[in-house]
Amino acid sequence: MPDRDFWYSLAPDLIGLVQREYTPGTNAPVFDLGDAVTGLAICFDVIYDDVIWEAAHDGAQLYMFQTNNADFRGTDENLQQLAIARLRAIETGRSVVNISTVGTSQVIDPAGRTIDALPSDVRGAMVTDVELRDGLTLAVVLGPSVPFIVVIGSLAALISAGIIARRRSRDPRDDAAVETDAG
């Protein structure tokens, strides 16, 4: 569990339910199904960029995320995890099958649209054709540099907007043009 000590201080009874015996595996997070290579992630793994990106680099053509949200019934954790799965579909350009034993299960296309679903606490099965994709999206290729690029790009845009606004406020021709339009 990420940041276990922090969350434990806020909700010890709830966090205490989550076991500690888990350790990261050493194999690539992909599974060869014969006709398709599937990227795998369980529960909290869906939040780790490196796990998702590694699967894409190792040939995942779609993702299957499985989880048991039973410990979090009555909370928004299931929907939060589902929202992250939707973002992963868009980020990687892959279909995502997000299956929960008790939460909302959905099949999500590479554009982030739900194409099949089962609501929370409803038993059922889905048989859904999904699009398989190869190659890497720009988000996966750039990986950890994306946030840096976004921050630098945003700062550059703000500085440019400030410079342009300052120049326009000093140019007397712009003031004359405004007076002419108003008069």
What's the quick description here?
The chain is an alpha/beta fold. The chain has helices at residues 4-10, 12-15, 49-57, 77-92, 138-142, 145-170, 172-182, and strands at 30-32, 37-42, 62-67, 95-100, 105-108, 114-118.
Attribute tags:
single chain, 183 residues, alpha/beta, six-stranded mixed beta sheet
Could you characterize what this model shows?
With 183 residues, the chain is of the alpha/beta class. It contains 7 helices and 6 strands, in the order H-H-E-E-H-E-H-E-E-E-H-H-H. It has a 6-stranded mixed beta sheet with strand order 1-2-3-4-5-6, with helices on one face. A hairpin with a 5-residue loop joins strand 5 (105-108) and strand 6. The model has no long low-confidence stretch (mean pLDDT 88).
Q: For the largest beta sheet, what order do the strands appear in spatially?
A: 1-2-3-4-5-6
> Average pLDDT value?
88
Count of helical stretches: 7
Task: Name the shape in a single word.
Answer: globular
The termini sit apart by 66 Å
What summary fits the major beta sheet? 6 strands, mixed
Q: Tell me the number of strands.
A: 6
Q: What's the gyration radius in Å?
A: 23 Å
Helix share, percent: 40-55%
Ranges where pLDDT stays below 50 over 5 or more residues in a row are none
Structure classification: alpha/beta
> H/E element string?
HHEEHEHEEEHHH
Query: Which strand-content bin applies to the residues?
Result: 15-25%
